[in-house]
Design the sequence.
């Protein structure tokens, strides 16, 4: 409840939320709305104002821009699909279509041909599966892929599962292929110039969340790494993602006693982790 | 004769056409025509992150006659990873010394600002890097450039494929941008210094983590493009303990014991390269940023120590040996 009050107090006059202070952005607005609707309390007016702001960021192509002044649709279109159905006013069908057709540039035929001509191995983790990019025309990475998998899963429950299942499965495979050697996930670069890269707590949490329901040795090692990350975590927001990820695999995780810096994302993710721990994971229902 | 894809590519001469552009431009090294001197570069010894840094940075600002009276100054350190030992990140003591020095020089406002490329939890990263403990009221003077207010800016005669970029208003509204990188080798670009440090001003809130749009548009070209937007940035490089080998993240700490500074990022970075034992004329982004202006050592006036007296041959990854200075 405290988190809800914090979030309501941070709502901008235009209905959206900023990351810390200043103008409204789509991403913190989505997470704030997700947290408020998950809290169980009725904030009808505030939610409606938030959705109304969000609606102004939906572009003609169906995707969402990170804020009103930006004229490109980006990855966080998937976030809007995670909002519960009662947040009416968004054209979800077109947002879903925009999300479903996005892929990382590295898996396109032009890049595969380029690598083939250079004699590079294109069969490894970079090329194998279609993930999602942060920004159109660039490569796929862990966070936008995990969020898109969760979003399309939610849409599949309410719409055309057969159409979306292949992309969802591709996304999960992408995540499994982008595991770091230590078992967890970083932003999506497992190896560079022959050197293994280490995983991060926040991306390990969000990847585990997107892989809920998936079992096997890769996921088990990811869970183990997630628990190690949580024990040594230095970030409240990262710890909340780990709670969400571990909880999605039936491994309840303790609330970490870490300083919070008051960012909207930090507050919203903590609220969402609490809701999930109480048995109502807003990403999965 | 069997034609393999490697031999075919070589024979057809297509490698250059399909490569996005080698970051380190070993094959492109050539003397440039214009032989005007660059702005001077200061090289000072600093054995540790001690209180002496406060005097040192004040001296540097005075030496370069940096007039910040009544102006807005933004200090841009390099924050990369959670690292209690501050080997990866610019040391907070040096940043605080700069903060105090610019305030003492009469700046109306001095902020610290950064937008890390991989980790989204910037304040936690800064906390773990010692910034909260070192800089009083850090949270009130810090801007996360990944999440700041933004404005679309047209690039000036871009060398990359980009025509414009959204950039943070904190940077665009400043009168003086001070780039404060760590002295490091870089596995793609050869070296990461004051110019490469400007990748951190590109907002992740629009482009993501990493800012992959810069990679696809060409790393050296984008470094040169960002430099062209802020050619008068001041540079203060933390070379007290740098990083060699597989930088910018997985390299090895390397004590160089120097602070390098100046009003020309190109000249400062070229000097830093020489201190690390790298040939700046073989670093592609320095070639692009220098254009026709020669990067010869004799054209960069030096104050303080001579390069030869502080040079510390940094290890580089095997593929980057061609960037080394002879000897």
Sequence:
């Amino acid at each position: 409840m405290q988190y809800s009050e914090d979030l309501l107090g941070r709502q901008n006059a235009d209905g959206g939320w900023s990351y810390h202070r200043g103008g409204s952005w789509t991403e913190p607005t989505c997470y704030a709305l997700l947290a408020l609707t998950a809290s169980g309390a009725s904030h009808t007016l505030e939610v409606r104002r938030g959705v109304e702001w969000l609606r102004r960021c939906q572009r003609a192509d169906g995707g969402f821009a990170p804020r009103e002044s930006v004229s490109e649709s980006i990855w966080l279109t998937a976030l809007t699909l995670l909002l519960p159905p009662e947040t009416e006013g968004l054209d979800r069908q077109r947002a879903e279509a925009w999300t479903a057709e996005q892929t990382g540039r590295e898996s396109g035929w032009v890049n595969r041909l380029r690598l083939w001509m250079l004699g590079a191995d294109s069969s490894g983790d970079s090329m194998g599966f279609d993930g999602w990019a942060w920004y159109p025309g660039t490569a796929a990475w862990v966070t936008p892929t995990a969020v898109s998998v969760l979003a399309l899963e939610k849409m599949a429950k309410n719409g055309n599962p057969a159409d979306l299942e292949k992309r969802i499965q591709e996304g999960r495979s992408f995540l499994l292929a982008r595991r770091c050697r230590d078992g967890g996930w970083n932003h999506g670069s497992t190896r560079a110039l022959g050197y293994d890269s280490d995983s991060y707590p926040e991306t390990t949490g969000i990847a585990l969340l997107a892989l809920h329901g998936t079992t096997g040795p890769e996921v088990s090692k990811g869970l183990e790494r997630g628990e190690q990350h949580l024990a040594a975590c230095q970030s409240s927001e990262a710890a909340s993602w780990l709670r969400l990820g571990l909880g999605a695999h039936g491994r309840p995780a303790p609330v970490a006693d870490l300083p919070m810096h008051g960012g909207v994302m930090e507050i919203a993710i903590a609220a969402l982790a609490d809701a999930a721990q109480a048995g109502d994971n807003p990403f999965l229902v | 004769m069997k034609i393999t894809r490697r031999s075919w590519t070589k024979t057809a001469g297509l490698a250059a056409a399909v490569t996005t552009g080698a970051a380190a431009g070993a094959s492109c090294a050539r003397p440039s025509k214009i032989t005007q001197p660059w702005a001077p570069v200061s090289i000072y010894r600093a054995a540790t992150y001690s209180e002496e840094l406060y005097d040192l940075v004040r001296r540097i600002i005075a030496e370069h006659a940096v007039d910040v009276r009544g102006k807005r100054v933004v200090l841009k350190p390099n924050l990369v990873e959670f690292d209690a030992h501050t080997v990866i990140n610019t040391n907070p003591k040096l940043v605080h010394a700069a903060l105090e020095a610019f305030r003492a020089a009469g700046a109306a406002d001095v902020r610290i600002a950064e937008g890390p490329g991989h980790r989204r939890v910037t304040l936690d990263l800064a906390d773990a890097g010692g910034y909260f403990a070192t800089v009083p009221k850090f949270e009130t003077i810090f801007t996360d450039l990944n999440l700041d207010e933004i404005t679309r800016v047209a690039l000036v005669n871009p060398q990359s494929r980009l025509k414009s970029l959204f950039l943070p208003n904190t940077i665009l509204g400043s009168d003086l941008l001070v780039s404060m990188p760590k002295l490091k080798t870089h596995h793609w670009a050869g070296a990461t210094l004051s110019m490469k440090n400007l990748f951190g001003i590109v907002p992740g809130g629009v482009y993501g983590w990493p800012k992959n749009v810069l990679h696809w548009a060409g790393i050296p070209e984008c470094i040169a493009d960002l430099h062209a937007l802020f050619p008068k940035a001041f540079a203060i490089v933390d070379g007290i303990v740098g990083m060699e080998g597989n930088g910018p993240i997985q390299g090895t700490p390397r004590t160089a014991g120097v602070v390098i500074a100046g009003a020309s990022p190109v000249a400062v970075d070229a000097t830093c390269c020489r201190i690390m034992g790298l040939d700046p004329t073989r670093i592609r982004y320095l070639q692009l940023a220098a254009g026709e202006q020669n990067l010869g050592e004799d054209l960069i006036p030096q104050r303080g120590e001579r390069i030869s007296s502080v040079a510390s041959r940094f290890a580089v990854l095997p593929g980057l040996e061609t960037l080394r200075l002879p000897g």
